[in-house]
Amino acid sequence: MSEDKFDAIVVGGGIAGTVAAYLLAKEGLEVILVERGNYAGSKNMTGGRIYSHSLGKIMPDFAREAPVERRITREKISLMTDESNVTLDFYSSKLGVQGSDSYSILRGVFDQWLAEKAEEAGVQIIPGIRVDDLIIREGKVCGVVAGEDELEANITILADGVNSLLAQKLGFRGELAAHHVAVGAKEIIELPPQVIEDRFNCNGNEGTAWLFAGYPSDGRVGGGFLYTNKSSISLGVVTTLSDVIKGSKTVPQMLEDFKQHPAVQPLIKDGKMIEYSGHLVPEAGLAMIPKIVGNGVLVVGDAAGFCINLGYMVRGMDFAVASAECAAKAVLKAKEAQDFSEGYLHCYQGLLEQSFVMQDLKRYKDFPHFLEETPRIFNEYPKMAADLLADMFVVKGEPAQPLRKTIMQHVNKIGLLNIIKDGWKGVRSL
Predict the structure, then answer these.
(1) Same domain for 161 and 193?
(2) Number of structural domains, the chain?
(3) Of the residues 253, 282, 311, which one is the last residue of a structural domain?
(4) Which domain holds residue 259?
(5) Does residue 53 fall inside a structural domain?
(6) How many CB atoms lie within 10 A of CB 72?
(7) Is residue 392 part of a domain?
(8) 161 and 240: one domain?
(9) One Pfam family this chain carries (predicted)?
(10) Are strands 124-127 and 31-35 parallel, antiparallel or unpaired?
């Protein structure tokens, strides 16, 4: 056993863990961060987009230095069938205003930069080591068992991802519920910057974020995503784990079919796949948050379930940063009082309640359930939109009928009452 005792041990070198370690080290605490991968970000494929507001508070103008890819100035949302694609395309310079801007990123690169900033602040990072267990004495977490070593600290911060086995060992949560998480597959497809700018109508460092519903997830809860990087595209699909067994397609097959769709294939033509990865993603919002405070331990980021999918927007990285900041503030208070009990560390929960993290999760707490119980969003509505627009724009030389009648023919296939009910439930959940 090591004779050294640290102020804090952080498990996991993703955004949440690294930011927490960075903030504590900046205040003079002796911090060690243990990362299972060979380097920070090596095992992360989440999304590809970070909203800057939370990290910008901690590292002002970070995007000037950080290896971000493109500033997102175009949002696209598509309803897709096997042969059609109906897209809402929103471009605005307002999306790029500092403080409310967002960027596409490659986590393997971005997380390494963030880890370097943490090391500069004094964090000791140990990569390539898995934390197998926690040291617990008299009901208090006193450190971790990492490889052949036991490392002790006043506080242990768990940032080991959505499938946090350490939180499970503590009894903070049970097995993951299949309807609480999604399984995703993603490819990084290399293309020349000029090709990306031409195909996506981007100028300079501008970029596009594009979400798809319907065909990419085989009509099940989930969808596809596309983010433009400097010289590559992040393209992937996600579907709720509980829905994977309901269809005939595997997730890798969904991704392959998505790539071959007539609306997508031209966008990645002549591209070279340079990375393929899969990952579990927290999807249930407030419903899946476990216990996050214990004697000598806090849980942050994905391990705490701090992520939300609103259909038109997916947020997790800004939640990870904000939860790390709240955790660091709680630890600093505990350090000052020399009290790392659950009762004293409970201020972490209070800080989260005051932040946008818990306020947003509570505001949208019903939306994941709405998506889960409204499968028409992923099968019938994309088909209705495509068929309606086909009738509007395809000219056959036949007498035209009133537009109202054309619309109602397609509405009636789903049922006007069903549409009204779904719309009302959707509005209430938001």
Answers:
(1) no
(2) 3
(3) 282
(4) 181-282
(5) yes
(6) 21
(7) yes
(8) no
(9) ETF-QO_FixC_C
(10) parallel
Predicted TM-score (pTM) above 0.85: yes
Please indicate, yes or no, whether residues 223 and 245 belong to a single structural domain of this protein.
yes
Give the CATH number for residue 253: 3.30.9.90
Q: Are both 395 and 424 inside the same structural domain?
A: yes
Q: Tell me, letter by letter, the H, E, C secondary structure of the chain.
A: CCCCEEEEEEECCCHHHHHHHHHHHHCCCCEEEEECCCCCCCCCCCCCEEECHHHHHHCCCHHHHCCCCEEEEEEEEEEECCCCEEEEEEECHHHHCCCCCEEECCHHHHHHHHHHHHHHHCCEEEECCCEEEEEEECCEEEEEEECCEEEEEEEEEECCCCCCHHHHHCCCCCCCCHHHEEEEEEEEEECCHHHHHHHCCCCCCEEEEEEEEEHHHCCCCEEEEEEECCCEEEEEEEEEHHHHCCCCCCHHHHHHHHHHCCCCHHHHCCCEEEEEEEEEEECCHHHHCCCCEECCEEECHHHHCCCEECCCCEECHHHHHHHHHHHHHHHHHHHHHCCCCHHHHCHHHHHHHHCHHHHHHHHCCCHHHHHHCCHHHHCHHHHHHHHHHHHHHCCCCCCCCCHHHHHHHHHHHHCHHHHHHHHHHHHHHC
Same domain, yes or no: 336 and 375: no
Asked whether residue 170 falls in the same domain as residue 217, the answer is: no
Considering the domain boundaries, does residue 216 fall inside one?
Answer: yes
Full pLDDT tens readout for the chain, 430 residues: 345 799 999 999 999 999 999 999 999 999 999 999 887 877 665 558 999 999 999 999 999 999 999 999 999 999 999 999 999 999 988 887 877 899 999 998 999 999 999 999 999 999 999 999 999 999 999 999 988 889 999 999 999 999 999 999 999 999 888 888 889 999 999 999 999 999 999 989 999 999 999 999 999 899 999 999 999 999 999 999 888 877 788 999 999 999 999 999 999 999 999 999 888 888 888 989 999 999 999 999 999 999 988 888 889 999 999 999 999 999 999 999 999 999 999 999 999 999 999 999 999 999 988 888 899 999 999 999 999 999 999 998 888 889 999 999 999 999 999 999 999 998 888 7
165 and 137 in a common domain: yes
Of 260, 282, 304, the residue at which a domain comes to its end is 282
296, 317: one domain: yes
